[in-house]
Design goal:
Number of domains of chain A: 1
CATH class of chain B: Mainly Beta
Radius of gyration of chain A: 14 Å
Structural class of chain A: mainly beta
Shape of chain A: globular
Number of helices of chain A: 0
Strand content of chain A: over 45%
Order of helices and strands of chain A: EEEEEEEEEEE
CATH superfamily of chain B: Immunoglobulins
Structural class of chain B: mainly beta
CATH architecture of chain A: Sandwich
Strand content of chain B: over 45%
Number of strands of chain B: 12
Radius of gyration of chain B: 14 Å
Order of helices and strands of chain B: EEEEEEEEEEEE
Number of strands of chain A: 11
Number of helices of chain B: 0
Largest interface: A-B, 29 and 22 residues
Helix content of chain A: under 10%
CATH superfamily of chain A: Immunoglobulins
Oligomer: heterodimer
CATH class of chain A: Mainly Beta
Helix content of chain B: under 10%
CATH topology of chain B: Immunoglobulin-like
Shape of chain B: globular
Chain lengths: 118, 117
């Protein structure tokens, strides 16, 4: 079974530029998550989708971050314009269902995209 | 809001020895799930072990076991017979069992495990 795919693996940009990250979840997984992991910290949820609808985006800085999940499969996370404090690893994860016992909604993570904003 | 605290930034262990990582959490909920994730330098988070709060029995997965103390809100991870491949960052995570909370994971700050040959 193919895992969660993300691209690019690394991205370096200047502040005020725009950047986009792509995520392809495990086939058949209804729920997709984007986490931000700042160096030395644990991941923090930015946004959660169920199919192509948003379940939770309470911690997404909506003035500069946006995300979409077209057709309930792939997802794109965009930052525009980027700030120095956006330097982090952006992790994508997916799970089979939104809610259920621990095993049914285990989250599987991709390799992440490391963003450096100069 | 729930919080997860890992008080040990780094732990060192000799190969084949045992190391225990600490995790405490704060919640007012009675039903929830707790997890330990491993993050090697490749950055991919890998689930190590899970614990359902309603279960009194501590979870075990091969060389990994937990000590779940619900009243104390403590959830430690023991790695037995440590191997070089165990070297990584380890994150403790909490997930509510309340449907309205969705499936969000709340992570601690992580503990780096170093394994000495």
């Amino acid at each position: 079974e193919a895992g969660v795919a993300q691209s690019p693996r690394y991205k370096i940009i200047e502040k005020r530029q725009s950047v986009a990250f792509w995520c392809n979840p495990i086939s058949g997984h209804a729920t997709l998550y984007w986490y931000q992991q700042i160096l030395g910290q644990g991941p923090k949820l930015l946004i959660q989708f169920q199919n192509n609808g948003v379940v939770d985006d309470s911690q997404l800085p909506k003035d500069r971050f946006s995300a979409e999940r077209l057709k309930g499969v792939d997802s794109t996370l965009k930052i525009q314009p980027a700030k120095l404090e956006d330097s982090a690893v952006y992790l994508c994860a997916s799970s089979l269902v939104v809610f259920g016992g621990a095993r049914e909604n285990e989250q599987f993570f991709g390799p992440g995209t490391r963003l450096t904003v100069l | 809001a729930q919080t997860v605290t890992q008080s040990q930034p780094e732990m060192s262990v000799q190969e084949a020895e045992t190391v225990t990582l600490s995790c405490t959490y704060d919640t007012s909920e009675s039903d929830y799930y707790l997890f330990w994730y491993k993050q090697p330098p490749s950055r991919q988070m890998i689930l190590v072990i899970r614990q359902e709060a309603y279960k009194q029995q501590n979870a075990t997965e091969n060389r990994f076991s937990v000590n779940f103390q619900k009243a104390a809100k403590s959830f430690s991870l023991k790695i037995s017979d440590s191997q070089l491949g165990d070297a990584a960052m380890y994150f403790c995570a909490y997930r509510s069992a309340i449907k309205a909370a969705g499936n969000k994971l709340t992570f601690g700050g992580g503990t780096r495990v170093l394994v000495k040959p």
